[in-house]
Amino acid sequence: SGTESTGAPTAWIGPDRYRATIRATWWATVVGVLIAVGVTDEFSATQTAIFALGGLALAAVVVFHEVIPDRWRTPITSAAEVASAIGLLGGLVLLTGGGASPFAPLLVLPVLGVALGGRPPAGLAAALGASLTLGAVLATDPGLPAAAGELLPAAVVLAVLWLGTVSAVVFAAQQRRLQAATLQLSITDVLTGLFNRAQIYVDLDQEVRRSRRSLRPFCLLMVDMDGLKLINDSLGHERGDAAIRGIASVIRRSIRTVDSAYRYAGDEFVVLLPETDFAGAFVVAEKIRQGAEELGATVTRQEAPTTVSIGLVSHPEDGSTDEELMLAVDRAMYGAKAGGKNQVSGYPRPSRQASAPSEVISHLSAVG
Length: 368
Description:
Largest sheet: 5 strands, mixed
Number of domains: 2
Strand order of the largest sheet: 2-3-1-4-5
Order of helices and strands: HHHHHHHHEHHEEHEHEH
Strand content: 5-15%
Number of helices: 13
């Protein structure tokens, strides 16, 4: 996202923890520098200016972390915070000895913060900004050509800055990949590669909210295999797993990239169809039903059915909440079973007011 690209926190750290760490680093750095300057006479000539700079730094901390609300945080405010931190540190280095300043290594801190919390380009841009700032400080020294004592410490700071930046960028990228892989595993059904049951309710709740805002409908399918028990009993569970994977593949081929498919239970699947009306959802359901019917010859190789019964409901007509929709689509699927299997139920729409049969309630409890 745009926030990440300018050095704002990425998901692997967490926005709250990232901001708390940055805020604590700001305060610790400013207070530590002011105490160090106050207890020594080494910078007595520029002490007043240093304290004034410290006051500006404290004001920056308050503005960026106490005054600006979270909803106003943008790539611009993130970039402004990083630039102000580097600029203030550059001023401190200038007032405390230039390239030989004991505070020059502090330029590494904001750069590492960006490198760890942002995307690689943001970290590299911050490192370049800090390098140019240190170069500008050195350029203000008229005796620079003879000031070898300043050049060596500055060179060490630059080396540490770039080495630290590259290391932090690589580390952060690895953490993002690891977190993405972990997240994918947590929401994915191992056998089919579809989303798992837990993810249904997360996505369905989000889709209900989106539909209320946009006033555009969406539909939900529940797909239940008609003959999995027969396949398991007659051909073995390995062939049954192959049939489940086959149905999952049929569903995946039948839906759009914006749609989502989930394994709800052992032989049941749910399909979420955003911005789809009832007629459009029926076309998708029929495509799945026909694909499942044709799957038998390739998966079972014997007379064992791979047909499916499909329930179809729409928001908001068949339910205004995720719980109501899941109950309605389960009821519609049972209607397809009761009607002879291998069919789509809910088109035309069943009455929403009809009470759920007891077997539906017990079924929901059993898979819950």
